[in-house]
Design brief:
Length: 202
């Protein structure tokens, strides 16, 4: 497929401009979604042209395209001082709670930044894998989940590979509100497997 050189150069310039504009307007996001970037160029620009122009910009180290996200090459999320503080507070709130974590909305509401920025800071911590979302309402610190895996490994050594919900609650000192979502998360992670009313520790 051939495209006029002038048109191709226009597409390249537009892509760079759109990425720069998006990152200026959304400093807490890691980049623009590839599909949104393509759609922003309008229907006149064919998919193949967009792909070729983007690939060329990446090979020239003008843009980075990792997975579904496109950003300026070498750009990092730059937090304002109050955002950096709020991010630390957010992580600390979950780290100190161990497995009896507060509701996400409760923690976000206590931060000194507005709701939209607080939500974006949470997304950064989830992307960095310092926090892990176990269910829609429950987020845990990675260290708490790592410790839980250690507890299960020790339990398996001492008591065998089967654990019931009451035994899991006793082991971890948490209520059913946390126990069930955590066990479902452990099933998904292949740490445990559900067999009837019990779990087999894998």
């Amino acid at each position: 497929m051939l495209v006029a050189g002038k048109l191709f150069e226009e597409v390249r310039m537009k892509i760079v401009e759109k990425v720069a504009k998006f990152q200026k307007e959304n400093p807490l996001l890691p980049g623009i979604a590839r599909e949104d970037l393509r759609a922003s160029l309008g229907k006149r620009v064919r998919n193949e042209t967009f792909r070729a122009a983007l690939e060329e910009l990446v090979s020239e180290k003008k843009l980075d395209a990792q997975g579904e996200l496109v950003k300026k090459a070498g750009s990092e999320i730059a937090l304002l001082p109050e955002e950096a503080r709020a991010k630390e507070q957010l992580e600390a709130a979950f780290a100190s709670a161990s497995l009896a974590v507060p509701a996400v909305t409760e923690v976000l509401a206590k931060l000194a930044v507005e709701a939209q920025r607080a939500e974006k800071l949470l997304q950064i911590l989830l992307r960095e894998k310092n926090l892990v979302r176990v269910s829609a309402e429950l987020v845990f610190h990675r260290q708490a989940l790592a410790h839980l895996r250690e507890q299960l490994a020790a339990y398996k050594k001492a008591r065998g590979d089967r654990i019931s919900v009451p035994a899991f609650k006793e082991l971890t000192g948490i209520t059913r509100k946390y126990a069930i979502p955590l066990l479902e998360y452990l099933d998904r992670e292949h740490v445990t497997r559900r067999v009837g009313d019990e779990r087999v520790i894998l």
